[in-house]
Amino acid sequence: MSQETERPGLFKLFITSLLLSLFAFGGGSTIIAMAKRKYVDDLKWISEKEIMDRITLAQAVPGATTINTSILLGYYFRGVKGALVCAFATAIPPVIIIAAVTGIYMVIRSNTIVMNAMKGMRAGAAALVASVIISLIWNLFKKKNWLMTALFVTVFVVIQFVRISTYLILLAGLLVGIIYAIVVAVKAKKGGIDDLR
Fold first, then answer.
1. Counts of helices then strands in the chain (DSSP H, E)
2. pLDDT at 75 over 80
3. Are 54 and 76 in contact (CB under 8 A)?
4. Closest to 20 in 3D by CA, of 96, 118, 89
5. Phi/psi at 81 (5° precision)
């Protein structure tokens, strides 16, 4: 691990993952933002680059982003046992809540208080996701990583205004990343700059 801290124990990993999942209203994007804030900013268990690498991989493979992210982070912290503990802890709250809500959904769906509470939670989740996005963009500008900044802007525009498959966007991003890595490696081998940032 890159941080100067001890590896978290399995119990602490379980509790942290459980609480993140319990309060991650708004879907996978919300838990990504919360995980970054908890693991990077508060606990300092992992660097921002390392967590974003794992989140990117979690989004690129099949399955729920929330569970995928938990498995990758759990594995990073404590190996296979950590992956299993984090996956189990992350799955508990939604399973219980969905089972409970399913039984009473017909009753609460017309309740004004419940509906307004849900809107409030969605607004809070959106603000949390936006704060992480702004932080990532700011880091790109600080590092003067113009290629990745351009890629971010391009993908954002494409997603907003062009009807194109998410898979094609991910594949294009993968291709750009591979080319970027090759160019950096060639430059370094020739004694040029170490990075294009």
1. 7, 0
2. yes
3. yes
4. 89
5. -60, -40
pLDDT tens, 1-34? 544 456 799 999 999 999 998 887 666 677 778 8
pLDDT value at residue 197? 47
Tens-place pLDDT, residues 118-138: 778 777 777 777 777 777 777
193: left (phi over 0), alpha (psi -120 to 50) or beta: beta
Q: Which two tokens stand for residue 20?
A: 């993140």
pLDDT, position 161: 85
Name the nearest CA neighbour of 88 among 71, 63, 113, 65. 71
Question: Any idea where the domains of the chain sit in the sequence?
Answer: 10-135, 143-197
Residues 6+ apart with CB under 8 A from 156: none
Angle, helices 166-189 vs 48-60, to 10°: value is 140
